[in-house]
Amino acid sequence: MRHRETTAPSNPILPVAEQLGHGNGDWPHLSDSSGRTVVQHLMVAVNQPVNQYERACRAWPILTARAATGKTITYGDLAMQLGMHPRPIRFVLGKIQERCLDDKKPPLTILVVNQSGRPGTGFIAWDVENLPEGFKKVFAYPWADDPNPFAFAGDGSTPEALAAHIVRRPQEASAVYGRIQNRGVAQIVFRLALLTAYGQRCTFCGLSIESALEAAHIIPWSQASHADRVLPSNGLLLCATHHALFDSGILTIRRDHKIECRKQALPGHRWNQADRQAVVALHGQTMSPPTDQRHRPSDAAIAHRAKRLRR
Ligand SMILES: [Zn+2]
Q1: With a threshold of 0.85, does the pTM exceed it?
Q2: How many domains is the chain partitioned into structurally?
């Protein structure tokens, strides 16, 4: 997902200088209230990986305020308000666009436009042939009623950092979930935690291609406690195929972590050779559990699922 701006790139140092209140003049030697000079700020920026979530957290209220007043904003203006170069703003807008699509909200990033009043080519959340209708939807939506979905990143946190925290201290999962408060972000964090817990391998077949690995809840999201929505012990890392088979109840796990193929979930199906290889052959095999005992599927989660499947 790309969000490409078309405004001419400007001096990358200017936004930082402007943030410090020095848009012109002898900026490299000027300092802010902490005594840090513009050059020192830039050194910090260069040495730290850029946190697009933190930028999205600051961009969100700027965009929703524009929506409330029925106005657009140019890539250059938004970049200046965020204290960044306009070029990488597409990454920030990509995060916001993804959230709006996932959360089925109006396409907020439609408001970020180039000099001709149109969003850049990275904007895919609405039909660009019918922009007026998209603007209307965004202007009419009560954004003030929704929390900022990137609030978790306000202190510089990232989904990776939250997932690492859960893996290290699973007893604090409920508090971590409380900071997230957004289903899509929680799902990202849950998957990252499972990728670590399972060493990036499908626990059923061993497939290790990360883009094909997904996070499956054992107790489904809607019935899970806050902690169980992000805890590896209520999940399995599965390849896309085995995730679909797990969700449809054709594959499941027992308390001893043996895989069970439930042919009864697919009555009348003619099991061909490929089906037998990828599915039936797993029956009775032991899944590869996480090495850390705390992340193995909990008895409570497995019992909850068994009861649900029996119904
Ligand atoms: Zn698999």
Answers
A1: no
A2: 2
